[in-house]
Amino acid sequence: MRVLVIPEDFRNDQFILKPVVEAMLKKLGRRTAIVRVCQEPLLGGISQATNWERISEILDRYCGMVDIFLLLVDRDGQAGRRSRLDELERNAHATLPPGRHFLAENAWQEVEVWVLAGHDLPSSWNWRQVRSEAQAKETYFKPFAESRRLLNEPGEGRSTLAKEAARRYDRIRSLCPEDVGSLEERIAALLQAQPGMSPTTGGI
What we know:
single chain, 204 residues, alpha/beta, Rossmann fold, four-stranded parallel sheet, 10 helices, globular
């Protein structure tokens, strides 16, 4: 199975999304799934990542090489973001050929929270506050990465911290049911409906 993850900006998000999605697929029994993060074209933020013309460009470019497209963006405290993602999913469903799928999910509130969910956090932090903070990256993730002296590594700590978190994927799913849990369930439904999804030959 070949999966292309579409972030709103791959330059930092790639370090989080790839290991988390790989862990999710491993949980679903797809240990050999090929997961790639879309780097070309670069989507320079949420406005482009939720623009159908830009998404359509990616679908056209990679359709022959991908089974599942995953658009993973931040919610940023915007309650209406899900409706926009639903619209993109409808457009993609009408465009993609049989056997190709597009799912979109928004992290509550930023994908960095998925990383934090996989770690033992300072006892003074309240998880509900971490989860609901629209600026969780600045408020919680960066201080946590700094406490681990990882800000100078690739992705300002995301590379190491996300790989560590992915090893505790069950914890991430448990603490992030609205986004990670929901996405896992939707992928599981696809796999159940189409168990013969393309073998991992070829590449993206």
